[in-house]
Amino acid sequence: MEKIVILTGAGISAESGLGTFRDEGGLWAQHRIEDVATPEGFARNPALVHSFYNARRVQAAKAQPNAAHQALARLQRDWPDEVIVVTQNVDGLHEAGGSQDVIHMHGTLAGALCSSCGHRWKSAEQMTPADPCSRCGRPTVRPDVVWFGEMPYFMDEIYDHLSGARIFAAIGTSGQVYPAAAFVHEAIAAGAQTFELNLEPSTGVLHFDNILTGPATQTVPKWVDDLLKRR
Length: 231
Ligand code: OAD
Hints:
Bound molecules: 2'-O-acetyl adenosine-5-diphosphoribose
Low-confidence stretches: none
Helix content: 25-40%
């Protein structure tokens, strides 16, 4: 049994043209987190928050999966045991690249969520504060994404997967946002071999057994080839 758990972040989609958060000129250099990625920001100015996610939804819809997303789909297909992809990304590029059962711990741009009744459905490309919930009719619709101060989704399921991991990889994530940044510790506790694949070593780099530095479209296909050769 050689179960693999992979955590991905914005860096895996960077070469598909989607900006990361903390790199120079990234999303958090252009927008204040408190304004567009907190429940308080949404309560203050829902139109601003919707317009931020509307723009990201349009951009994500135009983006194509890259060789790194496709390599992970190939690993899922060809590895003899489970390969679990957990992503912090709200784009749909893992699925577009062929991955199955992706765990979207920070939600997805494709989803709408009613804050009154909890109903979820596929969001329109453009959302507005006046949109009615498709079940209860109240105009309390938000993007189905996780904001700072909220609990990421599927945590029990993710910890369960980490406890059975033999191999853990963090790809394209700066390791600055918890709880995802601590997944490597869960994997180490489970006895997994750990890999970091990132453009440059992240803040958590010391915790990983193997560091593969470079653009994801180069490092990820090579890493997948090497894993598949050793099976
Ligand atoms: P960050 O923007 O914090 O980090 C992106 C990482 O990707 C950095 O370490 C870059 O060096 C690396 N990177 C950039 N280009 C790359 C490339 N071509 N190949 C490989 N790596 C590359 O993004 P995340 O770690 O995903 O949460 O951020 C985590 C969370 O913080 C996000 O999900 C979001 C954000 O605030 C919420 O909005 C709740």
